[in-house]
Amino acid sequence: MAGLELLSDQGYRVDGRRAGELRKIQARMGVFAQADGSAYIEQGNTKALAVVYGPHEIRGSRSRALPDRALVNCQYSSATFSTGERKRRAHGDRKSCEMGLQLRQTFEAAILTQLHPRSQIDIYVQVLQADGGTYAACVNAATLAVLDAGIPMRDFVCACSAGFVDGTALADLSHVEEAAGGPQLALALLPASGQIALLEMDARLHEDHLEWVLEAAAQAARDVHTLLDRVVRQHVREASILLGD
Amino acid sequence: MLQKREKVLLLRTFRGRTLRIVREHYLRACVPCHSPLCALPAACSHDGKLLSSDVTHYVIPDWKVVQDYLEILEFPELKGIIFMQTACQAVQHQRGRRQYNRLRSLLKDTRHDCILFANEFQEQCYLPREKGEAVEKWQTRSIYNAAVWYYHHCGDRMPIVMVTEDAEAIEQYGSETQGVFVISFKDYLDNFWPDLSAAHELCESILQSRRARESESQESHGREYAEHLPLEVLEAGIRLGRYVQGTLNVNKYRAQIEAFVRLQGASSKDSGLASDILIHGMKARNRAIHGDVVVVELLPKGEWKGRTGALCDNDSEDKASSEAPSEPMPTGRVVGILQKNWRDYVVTFPSKEEVQSQGKNAQKILVSPWDYRIPKIRISTQQAEALQDFRVIVHIDSWESTSLYPNGHFVRVLGRIGDLEGEIATILVENSISVTPFSEAQLCETPVNTPEKPWQVSAEEERRRRDLRRTHLVFSIDPKGCEDVDDALSVRTLSNGDLELGVHIADVTHFVASNSYIDVKARTRATTYYLADRRYDMLPSVLSADLCSLLGGVDRYAVSVMWQLDKTSYEIKTVWYGRTIIRSAYKLCYEAAQELLDRNFGIVDEIPELKNLDEKSKQARLEELAGAIERLTDIARHVRAKRNRCGALELEGVEVRVQLDDKNNIHDLIPKQPLEVHETVAECMILANHWVAKKIWESFPHQALLRQHPPPHQEFFAELRKCAAAKGFTIDTRSNKALADSLDKAEDPTDPMVNRLLRSMATQAMSNALYFSSGSCAEEEFHHYGLALDKYTHFTSPIRRYSDIIVHRLLMAAIAKDEKMELKENLLSNKDLEELCRHINNRNRAAQHAQKQSTELFQCMYFKDKDPETEERCIADGIIYSIRTNGVLVFIPRFGIKGAAYLKNKDCLVMACGRDSCLEWKPGSLQRFQDRIISTTTGGESVTLHLFDHVTVRISVQASRCHSDTIRLELVSNKPHKDPNSELSQPSPLLLKSDLVREVTRCAEEAQLAQEVVAHAIPEEEYLEYRQTKGRSLYMLLEEIRDLALLDVSGDCGM
């Protein structure tokens, strides 16, 4: 695969999208009955499942309880069949720990934790298929699951990745684009206020270009928000019909 | 809006397992079709180039056609070509990056009527590959489907021809849709382009070479070379340090045996190898060709070999064996080629006798490339006999491991062997210089300036520009008869007593808009090419010699840099950049300006502008002009002194002297006092370049085009130090200042040539000055070693150099930025600019090589008809500048020729002293020392030759059928040559190169006249015109330093 052209002269990416276009997003809320909240999302071929329990009492050692706010506990795992090569991943390896921490930071910024002091909120995310932008998919799935659980949040948290190829910022990278090794930026945004919940950057990028990439990622995150908002409204409408209102 | 599909790919992993990968594939309704007949132009939203509307049909090549016949599709006659994305991707995957980039640049080229249609992203054109379907079949099916869609999309108005090599497809799809025809490529050429014979020939030759290849692969007999390793293994090996990567450089003088790999970037640091790696023999070279990027495995130390220091010809295959090689150096063998750097090669067919000796396989013929470094190429053709006396171009197709030589095919004929035009065309092709004349479309863009319709300054421009026509005395100083004046000067005293110095440069960018046809053409040429007898302009002559040229007495647009200087200290107070209108009052030549500077008003008749004035006003005007030149010289002296204090290399001052002294003759190394005006003008240009460099760098720190001159490597000075030591001088090369000082001291009062030779050795040791983009380099590396400036660029010759055009655009953008105006044009990004710089550097190098080779060609043609035994001119005085094991390298100042003279011939006879100190061949032996060589005969007599000794040599030409002729030198006597009429000819002791050129051209023309009845003699004035612009400004100066440097005609080997 010598020199795969990530962005053609005509402005198409490998999979036929243009620079700012997102992959197809499909999502469902309330996929599990026994959990407090759950959601499933597909961003292109990246598929993630999120489950939320809580707020409930602190499990395990009581000393972890925070006096003024709720503890957000995030766990990330990915299925053995999620990548091209089948690979068993040990539970709690470095990558999933890191991802768990990132998710935790993201959601501590979004959930109104001070409403539930000395309690715990669990968010479990599993990636069923990884095709680029796993962090973004996890955040988006978890947002829907938290909403489904009815836990109060400041705002949606919408995440999207962006990269930089040949002087152009690309939104929502797929696995092929990530594997090429260019700079890659992950952004979690609170769309209504425009606040950034998390921003992470791999590889080196000239600071002159950062602004464009950031803007591309933010625009993509706002687009994601529109879609998620539609999903939530649809879900609420269906739920209210079922309840017979 | 987008539809998602999934593509399943099966890939092989590193470990050899198959991997099933699912990739998304998005389809859309609207993909730009780039056709003017488009039914929904709003939805297609075209930008970029459109197909032209005056074609009779569109042609869609199948993937196989694009792969195999791209050269034919590149013909500008073929119009309305639609490349399907499927076909392009097939090229990318199967033919590699080089071919794909060629296709990409073809698509980007606005002159060529072809577009790319992204059929795989269009919802109706996309066809998923069915299970079990071969890729080839699917590609053909997709392309046909897209062709049908395209036909309907254009409203069924334009017939479409799909050309394919697949007979099944022709049968299957041929009559499926009306208006979409499917035929083979051969039929297409026959039916639509019956007159395009060049394309037919090319097609035939490609077909034949393919057939030959196929039949050969079936035979597959014993291996000649080891297989190349797969790419993954190479990359892993490089990372682990087992292999090293570098560019292959074949030794010109021992092409069969020696090649060197110059290490690239990181690998040289890691491996700890200081020098290049020797690749010994063709087997170890393993099918790599000069210029390829190769991967090398080092051999164990026991197998390391040394390079040979002896002089030798290329003809004899293995003579190095008898010589004792120098100490062993790292030796390796090629295990893989990362990037092939194959281009078109000029070759010669073997003569009749040789063909017969090749005998049994008359269809396949081995041809010898003009360039020694390229191996012989095997081609299949039936025209061998007809093409015997011609230089032809061939293209290398492949080199299998089973084949001793590469396979190629015949492309086109250049000209007869030995014919001037043919040889010049050869030089151009070998340097990849294309000199197609300016097309109609390009000339249409130029403004007209004819006596009936004179060009005028437009009122709008008059408003926008600063008008200097009445306020400033502007004049230009150039060589005699110069037409393309791109710089003019002015100086005046301001009301507060300060001085205002102005440098005015022709405003080429006003006429050459970015990305216009002329711009594209100029960019591909990148520079004006000067050959010995002709030049190829970068811009059409209406611009270069007329509208852009700052001629005397007419209004011209200019870009000016004006400094306000303190009246006493000449410190620069302020600087102003901007567009202006000027009217040059005088167009002076250097000599006249110098006379004025010396207050010698006798030359007044040589200034045409003053002819029709009465005596009194003439005197006043002269006084004014002379005053201005004086002030200018004063300022220049000052600026120069300041630069010298910072450690500017005085070296190039000497080069100025050498270079500018003899406008036409770059070989004139005879000492001559330089005119101070030359330095004055050069200094003003350096100042302007420097300040513009500062300005554009400040405004655009990441995308300014600058010029750097890296400090030289100390080890390159070793030979210089050795040579100087032979004469008892020491050369300090630690800094540019120290070098300049010690060179000044190394003066032999009895022989001025010694200093000159030392200086040219020093210049040869220097690195090349290069253009670069400021974003790609750390600021410390911007430094210009030769000029001792922190930032430098080229701004002052936009008529002759494309880099200056870019700099002009940058400067205009910088001014607009200062005034907070919208930027009119998009500037090149750092990456694009870097690529452009690489291109310009590359073209400059090609221009130098072409110039050097054409000079050598003329030298050979000059001596060819002379009988060396009788002709007096063929005996000349030479000076030894290097000692080798079996001979010496000699420089002949009179003709500017450098070459090797042997002291030991093929029969192992050595030179011995005969009567009257004449040298003759006798059996004996040679002894070589650091600074002398002693030849002793068996009889006991001996001759000693020292470095820098003057000897008498006889010049003859060694004719060669396949390559360029070479000059051969033979020692006649070890005493300086006594010219019988030396006293007489002392004032002009040398045969000017221009005379040489003229004489050769005349001979060539006479020959032509004899052959043809219709003669078109070129008037003599044209030569004057051709010679004029050489060596006028700094550009030529810096570039020709390399030319001046003693590049051997025949002996670059050893040491």
UniProtKB/TrEMBL annotation, chain A:
Keywords: Acetylation, Cytoplasm, Exosome, Nucleus, RNA-binding, rRNA processing. GO terms for biological process: defense response to virus; DNA deamination; histone mRNA catabolic process; maturation of 5.8S rRNA; nuclear mRNA surveillance; poly(A)-dependent snoRNA 3'-end processing; positive regulation of cell growth; rRNA catabolic process. GO terms for molecular function: mRNA 3'-UTR AU-rich region binding. Residues 21-152, 155-219 form the Exoribonuclease phosphorolytic domain. InterPro entries: ExoRNase_PH_dom1, ExoRNase_PH_dom2, ExoRNase_PH_dom2_sf, PNPase/RNase_PH_dom_sf, Ribosomal_Su5_D2-typ_SF, RNase_PH. Its main location: cytoplasm. It is found in: Cytoplasm; Nucleus, Nucleolus; Nucleus, Nucleoplasm. One of its GO terms (cellular component) is nucleoplasm. Belongs to the RNase PH family. Component of the RNA exosome core complex (Exo-9), composed of EXOSC1, EXOSC2, EXOSC3, EXOSC4, EXOSC5, EXOSC6, EXOSC7, EXOSC8 and EXOSC9; within the complex interacts with EXOSC2, EXOSC7 and EXOSC9. The catalytically inactive RNA exosome core complex (Exo-9) associates with the catalytic subunit EXOSC10/RRP6. Exo-9 may associate with DIS3 to form the nucleolar exosome complex, or DIS3L to form the cytoplasmic exosome complex. This is Exosome complex component RRP41. The lineage of its organism: Eukaryota, Metazoa, Chordata, Craniata, Vertebrata. The gene is EXOSC4.
